[in-house]
Amino acid sequence: MKATFLTILVALAAGPVLLARADAPDTPRLPQPDPFARPATQATAPGQSTIASTRPSDEAIKAAVRAVLEEMPASAMPSSGTALSGGAYKEFARKFSEAEKPHCLGPNATRHQPSTFSTKNWNYGFGGLFALPFWGAAILRGKCSWNP
Q: Where are the chain's structural domains?
């Protein structure tokens, strides 16, 4: 037991010494040219920058956009009835319609007034004629509306 403890103690004491190392000083390197840069083909005037000469002109950009739009089929962007028809918007619309007050004579009049009774260990659900007291409670509490 003592030998194991001493071995661990020596390893812990020598650990920081074994982990230290010396770094060589940085050597200056020549800047490498960008392999993806466009070569400057036009001679620049003293007032112009070289960046402006490598950019495509506005006319070239407009021509490229027109060419791409002409290649696209007419039905590439179908127009649906709603502008916002993504999944998040459909989910919001579903939740919004679920939060709406149901009609008191509708099939789900007790949606916001559950027709259940719970004790510590048991849950009782009522339906049909047995749900009439819960339907009355929904009317009295304003959980359903009489207006269509």
A: 99-148
